[in-house]
DNA sequence: CCAAAAGTGTTTTGTTTACACCCATGG
DNA sequence: CCATGGGTGTAAACAAAACACTTTTGG
């Protein structure tokens, strides 16, 4: 690399990790344990190592916090304003991820730079370190606009779900009420759901049918779009 | 920055600069004058300096080659695979720009790293250095999908243009034929064009009315979307 | 007067929206 | 038997697509 100037630049990845929990859309926040912004809430992120791609770095950050691999992640923007980090020029590549919360909701905040990690409703976000508020907002915008033409939503739901659960999730993300009949007509019309021979259990009203997302059907009809989930 | 590892990382910006010329969509390519990929065609790009934001770096690259400022540019993706640069890990942030070619079509390839710069039709692109082919493709995809709901096309046309010119440009970008009456109905229906008291000159057939894009009307109705041109 | 492109409406088709009642289940 | 959400169709409004001829101009 001798012909290139050594700029001592630093770059990192930051992740907006979405989950759907208790009827709310939440993101994973860490509490920082070092300055600057010591004790502040922040998006999970880390430096990119010399021997890993940025995608790998993002997957690593997610894995270190959640123990999950093979999660849908997508790079959405790179933030490189001069003032974004008080200690110098650090460019950060931002990703969003969609994860399916299993019941124990276990997190393992084993990273050196975080003393705690928790799921926080996007409606009650605290102030965030650096420019992480803008990063979150841009990521959420991206999710909102993609959700209408790509099956991102399924990544947040359990494998088997009811149409009402799916509709609720869309309503929360899009922040508007949807008509039940029209919603069902449309989503079933895409023919990307598989109806299961199984019903909801443990509810004190008529049990709803369970469905699962059928990746095979999806890729048959929409093979144009990039794969939206790594198998 | 002492608390952060010094990774000696390097990052750059690369630009896919579009223009509409002789009825074709073209991008600006340079011929490299140093290894690796000496003599190859490549997208214009450069290292990001320590004291500039990535947006500024992209504007600088464009300015150095074309002498133009205040051009619409948009960051679209960051490429950071390990193998993308043979001499080491270089992350590059990619931008596209849309420029209005004035008649002399002058370029000033005054940069140190390029011995020539020229407009090349996207239908006849040569092999490109590094992963620049993928960068171009991703950028073009973005333009194609944005053109339908944001007024990017106007950035490529002269200030005064005919509806047929506008339609041709859409057809070339979308790579499909459009119906003349439907196109006019739709584009006029958005009410973002101003009809001028002026007609085409020097044509040997009925002269068409000239229009210009009316930024004021546009921002009135679509103030949601980010500004698509810096004034 | 001819070649070339400008300009102009209506019909058909498909898509989106609005809207209300009966059904099944658990307690 | 009742409270709760599950499940279902049709009509109206709107948007998109298909389609062909007359007008203007320069040469």
UniProtKB/TrEMBL annotation, chains A, B:
Protein's recorded name: NUDIX hydrolase
Pfam families xref list: NUDIX, WHD_NrtR
The keyword S-adenosyl-L-methionine is annotated on this UniProt entry: no
Keyword Hydrolase included in the entry's annotation: yes
GO terms for MF: hydrolase activity
Gene3D superfamilies in the cross-refs: Nucleoside Triphosphate Pyrophosphohydrolase, Winged helix-like DNA-binding domain superfamily/Winged helix DNA-binding domain
Source species: Pseudopedobacter saltans (strain ATCC 51119 / DSM 12145 / JCM 21818 / CCUG 39354 / LMG 10337 / NBRC 100064 / NCIMB 13643) (Pedobacter saltans)
Keywords: Hydrolase
Domain Nudix hydrolase: 10-142
InterPro entries per UniProt: NUDIX_hydrolase-like_dom_sf, NUDIX_hydrolase_dom, WH-like_DNA-bd_sf, WH_DNA-bd_sf, WHD_NrtR
């Amino acid at each position: 690399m001798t012909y290139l100037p050594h700029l001592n630049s630093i770059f990192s990845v930051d992740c907006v990790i979405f989950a759907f929990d208790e009827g709310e859309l939440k993101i994973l926040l860490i509490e920082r344990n070092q300055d600057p912004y010591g004790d502040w809430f922040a998006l999970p992120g880390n430096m990119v190592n010399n021997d890993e791609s940025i995608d790998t770095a993002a997957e690593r950050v997610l894995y270190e916090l959640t123990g999950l691999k093979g999660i849908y992640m997508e790079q959405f923007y790179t933030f490189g304003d001069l003032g974004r980090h008080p200690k110098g020029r650090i460019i950060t590549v931002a990703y969003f991820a969609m994860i399916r919360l299993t019941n124990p909701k276990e997190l393992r905040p084993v990273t050196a730079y975080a003393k705690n990690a928790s799921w926080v409703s996007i409606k009650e976000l605290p102030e965030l370190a650096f420019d992480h508020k803008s990063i979150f907002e841009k990521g959420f915008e991206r999710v909102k606009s993609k959700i209408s033409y790509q099956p991102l939503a399924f990544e947040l739901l359990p494998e088997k779900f009811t149409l009402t659960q799916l509709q609720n999730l869309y309503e929360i993300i899009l922040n508007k009420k949807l008509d039940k009949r029209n919603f069902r007509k449309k989503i079933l019309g895409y023919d990307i759901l598989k109806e299961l021979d199984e019903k909801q259990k443990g509810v004190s009203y008529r049990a709803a049918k369970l469905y699962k997302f059928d990746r095979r059907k999806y890729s048959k009809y929409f093979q144009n779009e990039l794969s939206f989930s790594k198998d």
